[in-house]
Amino acid sequence: xxxxxxxxxxxxxxxxxxxxxxxxxxxxxxxxxxxxxxxxxxxxxxxxxxxxxxxxxxxxxxxxxxxxxxxxxxxxxxxxxxxxxxxxxxxxxxxxxxxxxxxxxxxxxxxxxxxxxxxxxxxxxxxxxxxxxxxxxxxxxxxxxxxxxxxxxxxxxxxxxxxxxxxxxxxxxxxxxxxxxxxxxxxxxxxxxxxxxxxxxxxxxxxxxxxxxxxxxxxxxxxxxxxxxxxxxxxxxxxxxxxxxxxxxxxxxxxxxxxxxxxxxxxxxxxxxxx
Amino acid sequence: xxxxxxxxxxxxxxxxxxxxxxxxxxxxxxxxxxxxxxxxxxxxxxxxxxxxxxxxxxxxxxxxxxxxxxxxxxxxxxxxxxxxxxxxxxxxxxxxxxxxxxxxxxxxxxxxxxxxxxxxxxxxxxxxxxxxxxxxxxxxxxxxxxxxxxxxxxxxxxxxxxxxxxxxxxxxxxxxxxxxxxxxxxxxxxxxxxxxxxxxxxxxxxxxxxxxxxxxxxxxxxxxxxxxxxxxx
Lengths: 275, 233
Prior knowledge:
- The complex is a heterodimer.
- Chain A is of the alpha/beta class.
- Chain A is built from twelve helices and nine strands.
- In chain A, helix 4 (80-92) crosses helix 5.
- Chain A is globular.
- Chain A starts with a helix and ends with a helix.
- By secondary structure, chain B is an alpha/beta fold.
- Chain B has ten helices and nine strands.
- In chain B, helix 2 (42-54) crosses helix 3 (67-75).
- Chains A and B meet through helix 1, helix 2, helix 3, strand 2 and helix 4 of A and helix 1, strand 2, helix 2, helix 4 and strand 5 of B.
């Protein structure tokens, strides 16, 4: 009874005030090389498949040091549209400007989730997909040669929410480091492999229905040593979206291996879109 | 054959909360899978974990933290490979009991006063812990830096999962081990003692001074109990 009685007394207004206060204490530590805008947006991070929000930990540390409030969204990885609707509700719970950043499949989700939320000022794609309506995540992973993820996957049959059977996909634990995170230390990748969250094959094969990047400025980090999404695919999508693109010599797991570079790009997007 | 150890995280956390435990279990050569608990409804969460268990060959030790305990209580029911249940500051509901029934059964829980809701399109709501209350009320024995990360990356709990009653509990037919913190502000220690006694636990360990975030703050103690359970197989 304790949980529920307390819940009913809490309003969304209180929530938002508490959340936006979180990063404030660290504000004075912001580095002078990259001053954060005075009215800092909330950074909402969307993790990808075969990962969870802890994949952003190093990035969150940097962003908090620079005074940004941060929420890492619990991407369900069930279906593109339902995941986007879910992340959209997280974005909708934030008052004030938002910078959205997505890793991998998280970018596919973010492009739809931002639609209808005018407080989203910037989209930051990190080793990610920038889909046109009608395209699927799988299609763009295979559009250029070089991806090695497919043969490294295990499937677990699951019932789908709207009837029928589907599959949860996992990366085989002993292949995880090679195909996903080759530039991360083995003692870390053994943890990432054991804690990876699966994605349904349906989510990877569901076509995008919206592309917020057509109306919101975008940034794009291309990981040149990526075996999950070929760098050429990321370059192609970034050019099409007229995104500000940077390249980094890194594996797909760049939020873990180069968190400071990821936080820098998010900070750049926040500064460029500050009002 | 060594058992596979499957870890089920609780609400306001994710599988990374088990990192220290996984590291220790890997040193003893166990295969470990941390399940991605959806935290949507108790029955569907249990089904998701049951689907994962069904794909594992050989014996399984199933451990759950916090609400993850309620999930293992229901996920293990129809799988003969599950040989042991380990409740890590975990809920072990009886048939029909839900989370608030147990968190409110004895006085002492303060976490419920620091939650907020985010409405979802389907009419339900997700429950989060306020980031500025997370350290004190969820994980007081972790560093402020770790608490800030865990607060930002917490996975929310759907109201439907919170309020759904348990099915027939697997702890009635499987041996169980309990490890719980003395200073838990999410679930009172007295609730853990009550549940452990009711389940006729093989062993019950109270960790002095520890918070609810036991897998993160006391990974050695947690892994020890899991290995004790694994050694009986």
